[in-house]
Amino acid sequence: MVALDGARRIGAKILVSGGGRCNVTHWQVTARDYAGSTPPAIRNVLGRFGVAETVEFFRAQGVEFYREADTGKLFPTTDSARTILDALLVAAREAGVRLVHPAAVTAIERAPAGFHLTGPAGVWQAARVVLATGGCSLPKSGSDGLGFRLAAALGHSLARPIVPALVPLVLPGDHWIRSLSGLALPCRFRLVSGAGKVTAESVGSTLCTHTGLSGPATLDISRHWLVSRVRDPDARLVIDWLPAVPAADLESQWFVQRMIMGGQIEPFDFHKTGFSFTILCGILRGHGFDGFRRVKSFGLFKDTSIVNICA
Ligand SMILES: Cc1cc2nc3c(=O)[nH]c(=O)nc-3n(C[C@H](O)[C@H](O)[C@H](O)COP(=O)(O)OP(=O)(O)OC[C@H]3O[C@@H](n4cnc5c(N)ncnc54)[C@H](O)[C@@H]3O)c2cc1C
Question: Is 98 helix (H, G, I), strand (E, B) or coil?
Fold first, then answer.
């Protein structure tokens, strides 16, 4: 068996995975954890090679895992993706695989005895071909989408739209969320179709960055959002900054605060409804306010006001 890889540096994507630590799997994996294919097909694969088999495969190569306490993810005890790459290369060699690289394949044609593969590094004849070229994320790792073209040229159809599965979301340069860069908090994302129906949802840690949003909840909703950009341009992505507080509770908090303030709400007084000061300021800035300061107390009542708009 020959493995042809166009990359000069093998396994570049594995080396960057999990922030260089390579999150190999999770202590518990079910068909529901996968976004592509169909549940029966995934159950079939997991039934043959699930978490136990994965752990055992690597243990046979001398790799042990530890379980991250808060996420349940399994990482090599070395905390190094290099350990995983080395183990895979040794396992391939022991299985009789000859790795040839850099050897990009630029064309595959059917031949009487199988397939004819060509590329700058040479030509190969093969009775069978397994295309494992990755998608088209991170092209510098070697997966630049050529694999899709090779599959299409052989008559396979591609399920479109092709979008990245897990990516941070970039917001316009002047979006107020960018000003919260570095803030991490739990959020709920809801994708609402143009017809007003919630079509996808994710809940979890969310990170505001200098380019937009990242973190597990953002990554999980990203593929649904990117598909909707093509299929349903009127769809909206709605962020709930207080996922632990039901909307009905927020309304009652607001109502109680109206009572605390004697039923009056000055248009430029904002009262704490559970938002942190940073988020509240971000929202205010996003709506055009830039002159506000924090006040400990108005001194009139023991009220809950924290922010006083000056401008
Ligand atoms: C930043 C980042 C972090 C990630 N973190 C994790 C994580 O923690 N845990 C996890 O499980 N997954 C993680 N992933 C995802 C994981 O890396 C990928 O799912 C996995 O690498 C996909 O493996 P693959 O073999 O399908 O494709 P790839 O790893 O992309 O490998 C495909 C190979 O095919 C070669 N190739 C492509 N086209 C040709 C051609 N025409 N001719 C010859 N060779 C070709 C490429 O050079 C490449 O070596 C992460 C991905 C990224 C980008």
Answer: strand
Distance 28 CA to ligand 1 centre (A): 22
Give the closest residue to 160 by CA, choosing from 222, 226, 105.
226
Pick the atom of ligand 1 nearest to 81's CA.
8
The two tokens of residue 7 are 């990359």
Give the structural domain span for 197.
Answer: 169-240
Last residue of a domain, one of 188, 209, 240: 240
Q: What is the pLDDT of residues 261-284, one digit of tens each?
A: 555 555 455 555 566 777 778 877
Alpha-carbon span 137 to 126, nearest angstrom: 28
Closest residue by Cα to atom 6, ligand 1, is 17
- Report the atom number in ligand 1 closest to the C-alpha of 22: 8
Determine contact, residues 34/165, Cβ cutoff 8 Å. no
Residue 77 neighbours by CB under 8 Å, 6+ apart = 64, 65, 66
pLDDT tens-digit map of 66-112: 999 988 999 999 999 999 999 999 999 999 999 999 999 999 999 99
Domain assignment present for residue 143? The answer is: no
Beta strands in 133-235 (DSSP E): 169-170, 184-192, 198-208, 212-214
User: Can you tell me which residue has the tokens 């299929």?
Assistant: 231
**Whether 259 and 228 share a structural domain:** no
Q: Confirm whether 199 is domain-assigned.
A: yes
Contact criterion met (CB below 8 Å) for 99 and 3: yes
Residues 236 and 253 occupy one common structural domain: no
CB 216 within 8 A of CB 240: no
Rounded distance from Cα 55 to ligand 1 centre (Å)? 20
pTM equals: 0.78
DSSP 210: S
Distance CA(16)–CA(80), nearest Å, equals 10
Q: Is 145 within the bounds of a domain?
A: no
Q: Are residues 175 and 229 in the same domain?
A: yes
